[in-house]
Design a protein that fits this description.
This protein is α+β, with helices and mostly antiparallel strands and 504 residues long. The protein is built from 20 helices and 16 strands. Among the domains are: 38 residues; 42 residues; 171 residues, Ribonuclease H-like superfamily/Ribonuclease H (Nucleotidyltransferase, domain 5, 2-Layer Sandwich), CATH 3.30.420.10; 63 residues, no CATH class. A 5-stranded mixed β-sheet has the order 3-2-1-4-7, sandwiched between helices. It has a 4-stranded antiparallel β-sheet with strand order 10-13-14-15, with no helix packed on it. Strands 11-12-16 form a 3-stranded mixed β-sheet, with no helix packed on it.
Length: 504
């Protein structure tokens, strides 16, 4: 509201001085609309100067074009009118042309109502990622809501693969202790493999699940997300009322909290169909009208055929799981649940491991690795015994005698190999034969006979030297040097020195 004296000044300058409205606005610092309002209240209707728009000659062409092509972009239409003489800017044209575009008629929707026990809705929701060791896994929420009571089941998984999809269904049915007659899905790859018009090809595993629990799967129409609005609102409810600012230690802790929330806060909220009752009360009414559970739950294990390499491990889901070494280089089957990984060969169970969601981890059964180590040791022992048999024929009888007297064969084998390498096959055979004649089977006896035979021949004791495996080194001839100079160091001191010491 402008003051009275300013209104009088506006009227005086307009009549007496002939100022235009623009001049009045600039000089008096008053908005144009206020000046017009003052003049109108005084019975003066100043003419509105309406400039003809540059688009006016092209309006018929624009309307005809939009009638044929309602979704034509303004940028393309601008180039078309430019070719016909329009000289305005693209921004100004885009600002004006929206008035001539035909407006789509807004679609109205009916509020869907379902009978108790008739329908449930299922969907996945993404909730970020979890870092598990070296692996970054997607955190996915499986949500099932009963359409009548709005009772919600929530469980988190580290992927949206078919095994998790099946496990979510089984867990939800066990949670409700019942099954709805129809389950409504979005066009998920886990549910619908192909869709052409009204022809739908469901995932065969989903059909097996539906036959097991006797429910009917039904996908929503394409671009008709409103048909599963109950599960969409349930997901929004989960994001706002459960997951926001939620702290948890791991996936198991998160799912434990989700179960408590579903039975607590989510079940105590007012039912949207009847605000005077809670979701829990509506569910108690609905549950008798749901389908009962079968005697056994649906098997949700993931089955995959793998090829075991030369090492005793099989690769599954970015991790390695140990198997018995007797089954390497064979095709095996992995049966994986969310908690465990079983490895089978036909009907034989080879290994059971806890499931790991890490990346590049080795999950081992110590018995598998120890069995391979023992097998390798036994193999090396057999090869060593074969070598001794070829080098010294008496070795076989010597081992039998030693085994009968409880001698540790592994220690005996290592000792005989060292003697073979140090003294040669001939000396070892001679010593073994002498030990057998004396009816002894100890490694010390063999060493004694070797030393005895060398002393009898006047041979000095050998000095074991490990040389590189090089032909140039093996061809070298090492000459023995006299040790007389070193013997001078060991001679006794003169007697006079001892006499002097005794006299002192």
């Amino acid at each position: 509201m402008i003051p009275r004296h300013l209104e009088a000044e506006i009227l005086r300058l307009y009549h007496a001085e002939g100022w235009r409205i623009g001049t009045l606005c600039r000089q008096l610092r008053v908005h144009r609309d206020a000046v017009r309002r003052v003049l109108t209240q005084a019975g003066i209707a100043p003419p509105l100067l309406v400039r003809p728009s540059m688009i006016e000659p092209f309006v018929p062409f624009i309307q005809d074009t939009f009638a044929r092509y309602p979704t034509l972009r303004a940028s393309r239409l601008y180039h078309m009118v430019r070719e016909r003489g329009y000289s305005g800017s693209a921004d100004h044209f885009r600002h004006l042309v929206h008035r001539f575009r035909p407006q789509a008629v807004a679609e109205a929707y009916l509020r869907l109502r379902t009978l108790a026990g008739e329908q449930g809705q299922v969907d996945w929701a993404h909730f970020g990622h979890l870092q598990i060791g070296r692996a970054r896994r997607a955190l996915m929420a499986f949500v099932m809501v009963l359409s009548y009571s709005r009772h919600v089941f929530l469980r988190f998984y580290l992927n949206a693969a078919m095994p998790s999809f099946l496990h979510g269904h089984v867990a939800a049915f066990n949670h409700f202790n019942a099954v709805p007659r129809t389950l409504l899905y979005d066009n998920l790859r886990s549910a619908v493999l192909e869709r052409r018009a009204d022809a739908i090809r469901f995932h065969p595993t989903l059909l097996e699940l539906a036959a097991w629990y006797r429910f009917q799967p039904r996908p929503v129409a394409v671009a008709r997300g409103n048909e599963k609005g109950r599960v969409e609102r349930a997901i929004r409810f989960v994001r706002e009322r459960f997951f926001a600012a939620r702290c948890f230690a791991d996936l198991a802790d998160l799912n434990a909290q989700a179960l408590v929330w579903c039975e607590g806060e989510a079940a105590e909220r007012p039912c949207p169909e009847d605000r005077d009752r809670s979701v829990r009360a509506c569910f108690e009414e609905e549950q008798p009208r749901l389908l009962g559970l079968p005697a056994e739950p649906f098997p949700c294990e993931e089955r995959i055929v793998v090829r075991a390499p030369k090492t005793p491990y099989v690769r599954f889901d970015l991790n390695d799981y140990s198997i018995p070494h007797t089954h390497v280089r064979r095709s095996l089957e992995v049966l994986a649940s969310l908690e465990s990984v079983r490895i089978v060969d036909g009907a034989s169970l080879l290994a059971v491991h806890p499931r790991s969601f890490d990346r590049g981890a080795q999950i081992e059964d110590r018995a598998h690795i120890q069995s391979l180590v023992d097998h390798k040791r036994a193999g090396r022992a057999h090869r060593a015994i074969d070598r001794l048999h070829h080098a010294a024929p008496s070795a076989g009888r010597f081992f039998k005698l030693a085994a009968g007297r409880g001698v540790h064969l592994a220690v005996l084998t290592r000792g005989l190999l060292e003697l073979l390498q140090t003294h040669g096959a001939g000396a070892l055979q001679e010593a073994l034969a002498a030990a057998l004649r004396e009816d002894t089977a100890h490694l010390g006896a063999v060493r004694h006979f070797i030393d005895l035979h060398r002393a009898h021949r006047g041979q000095p004791p050998p000095i074991p030297v490990v040389l590189p495996d090089d032909p140039r080194v093996r061809a070298l001839t090492v000459r023995a040097h006299p040790l007389t100079d070193y013997e001078q160091l060991t001679r006794e001191e003169p007697d006079e020195h001892r006499d002097d010491e005794d006299s002192e």
